[in-house]
């Protein structure tokens, strides 16, 4: 199962969702609008309860959510794709474990003015995770960023 977790100020069916859904029609995207992180964690835990072998794609605050959910329920999640993840916050410090490097991809814009590149790089270093940097901002909306999103997802997500 493949889930997309959207950012704090976006919705479940934005540009990244549509990009990924073109390649993966089975993509599910819960609506977390108006929820704080704890409410999102509770909702995501309920949505994924009883499931396993999940791949989560998290954008910005959704990336933080995906990382926190993995730390709480590693048995449910096989792979993570984190897109400009908001791990630069105190909540990011609460991520206590991540999957092995082969199961995680992180994409971060060098020119991100919301989530600093160096903070994401430090997070990746902490867990020995691969980081792909792109010449883009927080939205990761350039053609090269969009191509990277699909390429990185293909590297970790095996469809049945």
TrEMBL record:
What's the superkingdom here?
A: Bacteria
Parts forming coiled coils: none
Question: What are the residue boundaries of the AB hydrolase-1 domain, all occurrences included?
Answer: 49-117
UniProt cross-references to SUPFAM superfamilies, sorted A to Z: alpha/beta-Hydrolases (SSF53474)
Could you list this entry's UniProt keywords, alphabetically sorted.
Hydrolase
GO MF annotations in UniProt: hydrolase activity
| Gene3D superfamilies registered for this protein in UniProt | alpha/beta hydrolase (3.40.50.1820)
Please state what the protein is called: Alpha/beta hydrolase
Q: What is the lineage of its organism?
A: Bacteria, Pseudomonadati, Pseudomonadota, Gammaproteobacteria, Alteromonadales
